UniProtKB/TrEMBL annotation:
PANTHER family the UniProt entry points to: BNACNNG10540D PROTEIN (PTHR31672), F-BOX DOMAIN-CONTAINING PROTEIN (PTHR31672:SF10)
NCBIfam families: F_box_assoc_1 (TIGR01640)
Upper lineage: Eukaryota, Viridiplantae, Streptophyta, Embryophyta, Tracheophyta
Organism, scientific name: Quercus rubra
SUPFAM superfamilies linked to this entry: F-box domain, Putative isomerase YbhE
Protein name per UniProt: F-box domain-containing protein
Length: 396
């Protein structure tokens, strides 16, 4: 009995040591012992390892661009903001270039977009030249990606793919420990809205029949106006079907566990010309940034609202007002320490950190900054050991 207790204690101690290692070290230690390899693939260990990484790691921020030649290379770069005052404005970019296997992908990416990054997994989607949207789940830490299979689609008579509105949502179901990709297809007022749900564990799609709310009057607004937070995916939508009336915008949310849609109102802001609006995460709460820039003076102002209680639209609170600032193209989101990431247009495009407390701007200096840089969001990323199973999985 004492020997068994000692053995269990040794295993527990070993696991507590291994869970503190970076992903690259864990992968390297897989070949040490067969039991270690099995441990590293255990979902419980993977979750524990990621929780520990999140607790001690200042996240990287992934930015995205596409090759100027229009090829199918997606340029991924990891942005590491300064971690303290000693580290000045020097920032290193780690290029994450990846070319997808052409045996699995018969059509070229045209408009790549990162739907979300959850537990170290990026969901990358894009329209193909053949007219269909394809998706890939990608874990850069373990250098692996999976091509999501196409859903079986049934188009209404006399309608073409390009006459439809599409939305997608990628999220994590905490109850089932599973990942889901939701595809919403709107064929217009005269037809039903179709909702398909892909589940990673089964590697298959299913059609969701009951949406509980009428989605037919809601139109696609922007591929970048979306945010995943704590099991819920939020999408900024328009209710006039033409994307013209700003005051008609609403938030469509989808809960990944119970698969329920809800419609939430935006906070009551003062509408101004040339307004840009985007989601963000501020102190683990859903935030909304209203941004306007005067064309005459190029001064920008930002109004930031926070939803204090998840899903409760009455809890919208104006957090702060930033500006006027010069040379700001658009906000990218908040860093973990609460600083605001901004895309800056001076002689060249770069990124700045705005300290909310001191109201100071720090321009970040990059080496080998991509010439084709074009983004509207910086996505928080912490590496993980989550891997993919089944068909169409590529290790590179």
């Amino acid at each position: 009995m004492e020997r068994l207790r000692a053995s269990n204690l040794a295993v527990e101690l070993l696991e507590n040591i291994l869970v503190r290692l970076p992903v690259k070290s864990v992968i390297r230690f897989k070949c040490v012992e067969k039991s270690w390899s099995s441990l590293f693939e255990n979902p419980s260990f993977i979750a524990k390892h990621h929780r520990h990484s999140c607790s001690i790691t200042n996240p990287s921020y992934l930015i995205m661009s596409q090759d100027d030649s229009g090829g199918d290379i997606i340029i991924m770069s990891l942005l590491h903001p300064p971690h303290n005052d000693i580290d000045d404005t020097q920032v290193h970019i780690v290029d994450m270039n990846i070319r997808f296997d052409t045996n699995l992908i018969s059509m070229r990416f045209l408009r790549p977009n990162i739907c979300a990054c959850i537990n170290g997994i990026f969901c990358i989607g894009g329209s193909f030249s053949g007219g269909f949207d394809g998706f890939f789940l990608w874990n850069p830490a373990i250098r692996q990606y999976k091509v999501v299979p196409y859903p079986t689609l049934h188009y209404p008579p006399a309608l073409h793919f390009f006459n439809t509105d599409h939305n997608f949502a990628f999220g994590y179901d905490y109850n089932s420990n599973d990942y889901k990709l939701v595809r919403i297809v709107n064929y217009g007022r005269d037809y039903n809205t179709f909702v398909h749900v892909y589940t990673l564990s089964t590697d298959s799609w299913r059609q969701k029949i009951n949406t509980a709310i009428d989605l037919s009057n809601i139109a696609f607004l922007s591929t970048f106006d979306e945010k995943y937070l704590n099991g819920v995916y939020y999408i900024l939508k328009d209710t006039d079907k033409h994307g013209r009336v700003f005051n008609c915008a609403v938030i469509l949310s989808f809960h990944m566990t119970n698969e329920v849609f809800r419609i939430l109102s935006l906070p009551e802001f003062r509408s101004v010309p040339h307004q840009i609006k985007t989601f963000a995460v501020f102190n683990e709460c859903l935030a909304f940034i209203f941004y306007n820039k005067r064309r005459t003076t190029m001064e920008a102002n930002l109004e930031i609202w926070v939803m204090r209680e998840s899903g409760v639209q009455e809890s919208w609170t104006k957090q702060l007002v930033v500006g006027p600032l010069l040379g700001i193209r658009n906000p990218l989101g908040f860093a973990k320490n609460g600083e605001l990431l901004l895309l800056v247009c001076d002689d060249d495009q770069t990124i700045a950190l705005y300290n909310i407390g001191s109201q100071e701007i720090k321009i970040l200096q990059f080496r080998d900054f991509p010439n084709a840089f074009n983004t509207s969001e910086a996505i928080s990323y912490v590496e993980s050991l989550v891997s993919f199973k089944g068909d169409n999985v590529v290790q590179y």
